[in-house]
Amino acid sequence: NAGVTQTPKFQVLKTGQSMTLQCAQDMNHNSMYWYRQDPGMGLRLIYYSASEGTTDKGEVPNGYNVSRLNKREFSLRLESAAPSQTSVYFCASSEIGNSGGNGKLFFGSGTQLSVL
Amino acid sequence: GIQVEQSPPDLILQEGANSTLRCNFSDSVNNLQWFHQNPWGQLINLFYIPSGTKQNGRLSATTVATERYSLLYISSSQTTDSGVYFCAVAPPYNFNKFYFGSGTKLNVKP
């Protein structure tokens, strides 16, 4: 099992460019998440999706859009990248869905994004 | 949102020593997890522990939900335990909205 797979692993953008980070999970999980991690800090939730076809804002959604393409895939889009979006981005998934329960988070390996 | 505070922020240990990491949170939670981020950046789930005590090898965790804290114990530490340990919590009114602490950075020296 691959678990949670995210691409690309590294990306350098110029200010104003756009890009999409891809994430896929093969654990049949209901919920998927996008987090960002800045140096010396914990992870902050950007957006999450509790089920196919639904998305909700997290703590830091400004400047990002997401798409839950199907149960497996959840993408994060930067429409016009800014230097403040330089960060490491993690995708995660869990069984939680809309009903809660014993949902452990499983993370992808991260994407290091630099915006110049 | 929920405030999550972890202590200590940094910890240096000699191999073989024991340690206790603490996570305090500001509101009721129904989900609490501990993670290890290794030096290569990978996040590994150590425990799902909204209440009670669990053990996994040299690691154990205890959560006292009524007093809003959790402890992670590392015994007989090894150099491979180095990295950053994070606590994450989610409230009962939003199962999916996890809040992370800033982490405890552990360095185990040989």
Present the secondary structure layout.
The complex is a heterodimer of chains A (116) and B (110).
Chain A: E1 4-7, E2 10-13, E3 19-25, E4 31-37, E5 43-49, E6 56-57, E7 64-68, E8 74-78, E9 87-94, E10 106-107, E11 111-115
Parallel strand pairs in A: 2-11
Antiparallel strand pairs in A: 1-3, 3-8, 4-5, 4-9, 5-6, 7-8, 9-10, 9-11
Chain B: E1 4-7, E2 10-14, E3 19-25, E4 31-37, E5 43-48, E6 52-56, E7 59-64, E8 69-74, E9 83-90, E10 99-100, E11 104-109
Parallel strand pairs in B: 2-11
Antiparallel strand pairs in B: 1-3, 3-8, 4-5, 4-9, 6-7, 7-8, 9-10, 9-11
Which parts of chain B are unreliable, with pLDDT below 50 for 5 consecutive residues or more? none
As a percent range, the share of helical residues of chain B equals under 10%
Helix coverage percent of chain A = under 10%
Average predicted local confidence, pLDDT of chain B: 96
The major sheet of chain B is characterized as: 6 strands, mixed
Query: What is Rg of chain B?
Result: 13 Å
Task: Please report which band the strand proportion of chain B falls in: under 5%, 5-15%, 15-25%, 25-35%, 35-45% or over 45%.
Answer: over 45%
| Structural class by helix and strand composition of chain A | mainly beta
What is the molecular shape of chain B?
Answer: globular
The protein's oligomeric status is heterodimer
**Arithmetic mean pLDDT of chain A:** 93
Radius of gyration of chain A (CA) equals: 13 Å
**Low-confidence stretches of chain A at least 5 residues in length (pLDDT < 50)?**
none
Structural class of chain B: mainly beta
User: Total helix count of chain B?
Assistant: 0
Q: Tally the helices of chain A.
A: 0
The major β-sheet of chain A equals: 7 strands, mixed
Q: What is the number of E strands of chain B?
A: 11
SSE order of chain B: EEEEEEEEEEE
The most extensive interface between chains reads: A-B, 30 and 23 residues
The shape of chain A is: globular
